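Ticket #4471: structure output looks truncated?

Reporter: J.K.
Steps to reproduce: submitted the chain below (171 residues) through the standard prediction queue, then opened the result file.
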Amino acid sequence: MIFSWMLLSALFVPTSLQVVLTDDIYSVPAGEWRYVEFVVSQQPAAVRCDLDLVSGGPAGVRAELLDRNNLELYTNRKPHQFLAAAAVASQTLILQAFHSPGTYAVAMINITGHPARVRLHLAMDFSGIGQTAAASYLSPHRRLAVILISFAAFFAMVTFSARKLLRAIKG
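Returned output as attached by the reporter:
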């Protein structure tokens, strides 16, 4: 009896689908930046970045989550876009879901004149918890085909039912 309860509880305990990519402290010199690249090849996927300012001025380090193209723009000092960003303080968290595979990076940017040390705990979550499926739509031709087939089936059932009712009334 106890063995069966242990077996059932083991079956229903959720398994971890989380992979830790890094859990290190990075030194970011004054006015410089450091980044950590990672590859997303599996869907659904989400990244969890736990950042903690170990040493350095308050609100002096900014973290940005970038895709590969925008990372190259940033390294060439050109205008870029980011997926998520936050000022690094004690216990800063960035959560981001990914909808397409590719290479991404977490950039830690020191915007002050003082060197900083940032602890980065970067983990990928493949469980899909909290993510919704992307909506997909039929092409106009398929949509029309579905509507026409549905009308045909509906009118066939109505015609069949009407004939049965008329035969039952006549007698």
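Triage note (M.O.): checked the attachment and the full token line is present. The first helix runs from residue 2 to 12.
Status: closed, working as intended.
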